[in-house]
Amino acid sequence: MYPQFRSPCPVASALDLVGDKWSLVVLRTIFAGRHRYNELAGVAEKISTNILADRLARLEGYGLITKRAYQHNPERFEYHLTQRGADFLPVLQQLAIWAREHIPDRWSLPGWFAEGTARQFYPEPGSEGAALNPRAG
Amino acid sequence: MYPQFRSPCPVASALDLVGDKWSLVVLRTIFAGRHRYNELAGVAEKISTNILADRLARLEGYGLITKRAYQHNPERFEYHLTQRGADFLPVLQQLAIWAREHIPDRWSLPGWFAEGTARQFYPEPGSEGAALNPRAG
DNA sequence: AAGGTCACTTGCAATATGAAAGTTGAGAGG
DNA sequence: CCTCTCAACTTTCATATTGCAAGTGACCTT
Known about the structure:
By secondary structure, the first copy, chain A, is mostly helical.
């Protein structure tokens, strides 16, 4: 499930999983309520589709997201956060707080993101989670 | 000072600065009290020196660290966190918390790291900061 | 049957990373 | 003076990752 780690350092190990240019951007997009491939491919940052497919497969392999069919004929999939993936929310929140303080002219943080908790994004949107999910509201 | 950003998203923008395999590992090492090139080059993760030199230059360019001579004849340098760099502590803390929860057999978090605040690592070790700095204690 | 959409996959050029060796400036030892 | 060492990079070159564009196949609509 996990790759070879550079060291047993927690910081370095977490980066062995998501320390690239796109993984956390993909996670952020799923937090934002975009669960389908074409929604994920349409982000403002213009991720190319080979990278997107690769990152989705990796994040699924690391247990951060799940892929499940939401219809058959044709079979279509949605990517959702696992608890492990949802627990990345504090990391993204702190990254965003840092950026808001130190890089000018960034987007402001929506309330569902700034005040959200990991639990609201797991297990499934629909019960408590849906209330703060931008696409369910 | 800053590069071209992929988008105005704070998360994506922060990753445009440090979203690679090594930048945050270098920052972590400086938080851990290693300030000199050979100390930074000697980390457990075996960073190669060309990458280290490049990341130090980039982090300095982004204003996250400063390079200053600590002696002359021969001139030798130390790298220290700026406030901007010290403010990355919460990001590293959350990354480490995630890894401790979700990846087995990682190092435990030293108290100076887990309970530290950004302010303790800035402006200079020596007054309040030195108290929690692992190499000063 | 023709055309369209979706979810990828492939090919290939451009860029980044990694390992190892080389360079520069200065002090130390003989 | 000549070599040796050390710190702090720099260079070289092989490998790996990323990016762009085009292609593929399953299924659906007309």
